[in-house]
Design brief:
By secondary structure, the chain is an alpha+beta fold. A three-stranded antiparallel beta sheet has the order 1-2-3.
Length: 54
Amino acid sequence: MEKITVKNTDVTIIQNNENDYISLTDIARFKSDDPTAVIANWLRNRNTIEYLGI
């Protein structure tokens, strides 16, 4: 696992089969002390639902 720093926040990067994945939880912690609420709001967002449906 590697980490990058974005706006003074460490974000974890995981590599799997030559693909890179970033941690949404690490990004959500930047916005709030309760990252689960932030992620839940993202998943309820209309744009997210449309994107996942593509």
